[in-house]
Structure formats: structure tokens, C-alpha cells
Write a structure and sequence with these properties.
TIM Barrel; eight-stranded parallel β-barrel; two-stranded antiparallel ribbon; 46% helix; 16% strand; binds coenzyme A
């Protein structure tokens, strides 16, 4: 499936060392999985996790879910071996941690000739260089690492990260790449998750990264167009076609003007709804 045409509502991290979770993911209704070899895997488990994950990916069974592997950085003892193990087969993308510049992306691109690359934006330098990172020709998407970013910023609470989130979104949208929100740590707090999903969706994120299966349903719902939105989009398209046929460039629906630019948005919304329906069938 074309990257941009895929849904990216729910993107679940799975520690590459957790055999039970790796298997469980084959039955979870997530749009994508981040198989993690980096921070969710302890140093002494790194090599075993790499072997386990390679075996599970070769076994398959992940269906239409996009498969991203988060490797260790090239400045660690494990980065090169991770890249060698996942350079081609069985993955839809390689996610690079702690990207600070386009040069960091290029260093990985030199080792991985074909797979689309994704960047964790989770350092202050990464946020400030988001535009050049997004513009790297191999880059397919951003994943926000809000825990690391909060740690480096020394900030508290989500509103303190607003400027960072929006810089990343601006850069991603300017280059037409995917942009995924950070995780919500309190995985038993459904109301808190729902509120943060709504916030991320309204900011413009394509979806949210998750740490626990219990977060999937709420996230899928929040990032999917609602039935009301789908119906409004259809009515806007119909009304605008009618206006155009009458030689007009503007229609009115529910007391609001509808111009060509709204039709572009309405069609994108319907395409997203179709992509979600295809994912769920
Ligand atoms: N992906 C897939 N399955 C998962 C999962 C995940 N991220 N997290 C938990 N599960 C599974 C468990 O294996 C368990 O399966 P089972 O019922 O078949 O045994 C089930 O979901 C319930 O798990 P639960 O007991 O509620 O959670 P836990 O206490 O085992 O684990 C965490 C809690 C937070 C440690 C765990 O969810 C986790 O490791 N999340 C990912 C963390 C991560 O990747 N961080 C890096 C990026 S921020
Ligand atoms: Mg991190």
C-alpha cells in the first residue's frame, strides 16, 4: 500500500525482546507497529531481541499493518548490526532514534539502500532542524518522542511542548510526510488518552504512537473521520459540483461557504475513510 494512502491512526510500540507481545500484535487492530530494539530493550537483551524479531518478521502474519523497526543509533554498539539485520526484507520502514540533523538520516541511508526511513524527533536539536530532516529525500515520516523531549527541555505537561509539536507538524506538512504524535504514558487512563488523542488530531497529526493494546480502540476512533464528517464531505462535494455546473465558484452548505480548497479537504477525508475501511476489512 502507498505510504500516504495508508491509515496511521494507531501505531503500537512493541519491545523486540517480548515474544508474547510480538505474537499478540498479529491480532490487534493497529494500523502500524514499531518493533523496538532501542529504549524498550535492555542492553543485555539487544542481540537476542534482534534475532527474535528477525525470526518473527520472517514468520509474518502481521497482515496489512505497516511494520517499522526502531533501531539503535549508529553511535551505539548495536546500531550497525540492527541496520544490517533489517536493511531490506520484511519491513516497511526503519525508524532512526534521536535524529538531530539531515546528516544523521544520511548516515543511515548510506547503510540501508532501499527501505523508507523514519525519524524520531525527540531532542531539541531535532525539533530545531525539523525542516531539513523532513526534506531528506529518503524520509517518510516523523515520530514524536515526547518523553525524551520533555526530559531534555526540562518542561512539564503537554502544553509546554506546543511549539515543538507544531514545528514538527509544519516541517512534515511542508514536505508531505507522515507525522505521528508521542505516547500517552498512563495507559490505564482512558479519559486522559481520549483528550490527548483529540488534541493531537486537532493539531494535525496523522495518528498517535501507543505503548499498550488497551489504547488502540480509543486512538483508532479519535483519528478516523466520524460519520458526520463523512456525510458533510459528501454534501460539500455534491453542492460544489452543482454550483460549478451553474457557473459558480462558491457553494453554501449549512450556512458556510464551500470553495475549491474545501473540496480538496473533503476528498482527502473520504479517501482516508476508504483507506481505514480497507484496513479493517
Ligand atoms: N504490544 C503488544 N502486546 C502488548 C504490549 C505491546 N506494547 N504491551 C502489553 N501487551 C500484551 C501483554 O503481553 C499481555 O498479553 P497477554 O494477555 O497475552 O499476556 C497483554 O497485552 C496485557 O498486558 P499487561 O499485563 O496489561 O501489561 P504489562 O504489565 O505486561 O506491560 C508495559 C505494560 C507498559 C510494560 C508494556 O505494555 C510495554 O512494554 N509497552 C511497550 C513499551 C515500549 O515499547 N516503550 C518504548 C517506546 S515509548
Ligand atoms: Mg526516545
Amino acid at each position: 500500500m502507498d505510504l500516504a494512502m495508508r491509515p496511521w491512526r494507531s501505531v503500537l510500540y512493541i519491545p523486540g525482546s517480548n515474544a508474547r507481545a510480538l505474537d499478540k500484535a498479529r491480532g490487534l487492530p493497529v494500523d502500524a507497529i514499531i518493533f523496538d530494539l532501542e529504549d524498550a530493550v535492555a542492553a543485555e537483551e539487544k542481540a537476542a531481541a534482534r534475532t527474535l524479531l528477525a525470526g518473527e518478521l520472517a514468520k509474518g502474519g502481521y497482515g496489512a499493518r505497516a511494520r517499522l523497526v526502531r533501531v539503535n543509533g549508529l553511535d551505539t554498539d548495536w546500531g550497525r548490526d540492527d541496520l544490517a539485520a533489517f536493511a531490506g526484507a520484511e519491513v516497511d520502514g526503519v525508524l532512526i532514534p534521536k535524529v538531530g540533523s539531515a546528516a544523521d538520516v544520511q548516515a543511515v541511508a548510506d547503510n540501508v539502500p532501499e527501505v523508507p526511513l523514519w525519524a524520531m524527533i525527540e531532542t531539541c536539536r531535532g525539533v530545531l532542524n525539523a525542516a531539513e530532516i523532513a526534506a531528506h529525500p529518503r524520509l517518510a515520516g516523523f515520530v514524536l518522542g515526547t518523553n525524551d523531549l520533555a526530559k531534555e527541555l526540562g518542561c512539564r505537561g503537554r502544553s509546554a511542548m506546543g511549539a515543538s509539536l507544531q514545528l514538527c507538524l509544519l516541517a512534515a506538512r511542508a514536505e508531505g510526510i507522515v507525522c505521528l504524535d508521542g505516547v500517552y504514558n498512563a495507559f490505564k487512563d482512558e479519559d486522559g488518552l481520549r483528550a490527548e488523542c483529540a488534541d493531537g488530531r486537532d493539531l494535525g497529526f496523522d495518528g498517535k504512537t501507543l505503548i499498550h493494546p488497551a489504547q488502540v480502540g480509543i486512538t483508532n476512533e479519535a483519528f478516523a473521520p466520524s460519520q458526520d464528517e463523512v456525510e458533510l464531505a459528501r454534501r460539500q462535494i455534491a453542492a460544489f459540483a452543482e454550483a460549478e455546473a451553474a457557473g459558480k465558484g462558491v457553494a453554501v452548505v449549512d450556512g458556510r461557504i464551500v470553495e475549491n480548497l474545501h473540496i480538496v479537504t473533503a476528498k482527502a477525508l473520504l479517501a482516508k475513510a476508504d483507506a481505514i475501511a480497507a484496513m479493517e476489512s
